[in-house]
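Quick one: structure for this chain?
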Amino acid sequence: MNATSQAITPKLASKIAHLAFLFRSEFSGSTVDLSPWLTDEETQSQLDPHSIDMSFYLPKHLGVLACQCVLIQVHFSENLLLPTSQLRTVHACGYMFTEQQWQFSTENWTFVGLATPKIEHQVQFKNLINRIFELFKHPNQVNTSE
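Got it. Here's what it folds into:
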């Protein structure tokens, strides 16, 4: 679900903003789109209502992730407003224009695809994902000191 749709409390809005900050600090020059999905009924019916989805556009000259756009989906166990909600998995896909270059999931912590990032950039990306897990350890609490 679009990150903008999940920013329903000040705490969640703060964490979503910090997630964008973490990515941009790790991959400088990137820009964020907090609403990567169309808002039509058909598209919305296919989205996970318990996820925070956003995309990042990387400058062409950066080239660190072997793509120009990264879609990140942070999946939670249940509604983010419930105190028992926990971060379950993070999925990411790298795109060059409309063609998917790679996929990443915390289910197996590996990159697969046509063109995966270099090992040092995979490590950098995985470190970012670990920071996302730390940020959302308790989704309803604000802790952006990382």
